[in-house]
Amino acid sequence: MKSREPKQARNTATWHVKFGAYLRRPANALLLIATTLALAMPAPASQPFGPGGKRSIKTMTVNLYIGAGTERILALDPTDPEYLTKLVTAVTGVYYEIVASQPQVRLQRVAAEIAARTPDIVAVEEATLLRNQSPGDLIVGGTSPATNVVFDYVEMLVTALEVRGAHYAVAATGNEWDIELPMLNLQTGTVDDVRQTDREAILVRTDLPRGQLHVSNPQNGNFTNVIGFPSLGLSLLRGWCSVDVFSRGRVFRYICVHPEE
Fold first, then answer.
1. What is the DSSP letter of 166?
2. How far apart are CA 224 and CA 207, in angstroms?
3. What's the CA gap between 191 and 158, in Å, rounded?
4. Cα–Cα distance between 202 and 172 in angstroms, integer?
């Protein structure tokens, strides 16, 4: 790539030559001064309006990330005589890796980015709901669902936004996979169950003037084609959620989709 410095130098030199020539003619000098002042003045702040004076809709997509890789669990062989021991070890590692990723800190940073951009609608992917049960059932899936909430990424994000003066509400959510597995609680030494529910969500601003933005008809669903692990009794569902948006005479459907990559 060629450097721009020589071209900039030539343009500067030409400007000084023309400037001197204009000063020799009073009328041209006044015109040049007026033009220079106009160029020096800051441009007016851009308005969030599109063609015809209609307000534009600002959107943003964020992936919250679970905080750990789950591949080590899915790679286990259920026919291995030591499968259960290896499963508990792998799940324990993933769980504490999620904890070590500091979801509270990560979501504070995400909230800061959203608050700085103030989008009208936010599509949220990989919004984990992590729950546990102690003691656990020591089987894949458990005999009773874990209900004790450890991390709710959606709730944490909305709260972090509110603290920053950015007012959003959850307009729609959709569940993807919902998996419960045994793990070792390193604090108590018991075998607990940990349950991870992967979700997507749509957040909508609630502080806009009345009539500027309205959403309704929340929907969600899962794709028919899934990645299945019959030996584990697991299916990695992917899905979507949507809302119908009404904004100053315009109506459209906004969809948050999280396909398998």
1. -
2. 37
3. 32
4. 5
Give every CB contact of residue 161 below 8 A, 6+ residues apart in sequence. Answer: 111, 114, 115, 167, 168, 203
Question: Which residues is 180 bridged to in the sheet?
Answer: 195
Residue 181 identity: L
What is this structure's pTM? Answer: 0.75
Helix/strand/coil for 259: coil
Q: How far is CA 77 from CA 87, 129, 165, 184, 246, in A?
A: 9, 27, 49, 19, 50
- pLDDT tens digits, 214-254: 999 999 999 888 777 665 667 778 899 999 999 878 899 99
Return left, alpha or beta for 102; rule: phi > 0 is left, psi -120 to 50 is alpha, else beta.
Answer: left
| pLDDT tens for each residue of 2-61 | 344 333 333 333 233 222 333 333 443 333 323 333 333 333 333 444 444 556 889 999
Rounded to 5 degrees, what are φ and ψ at 36?
-60, -45
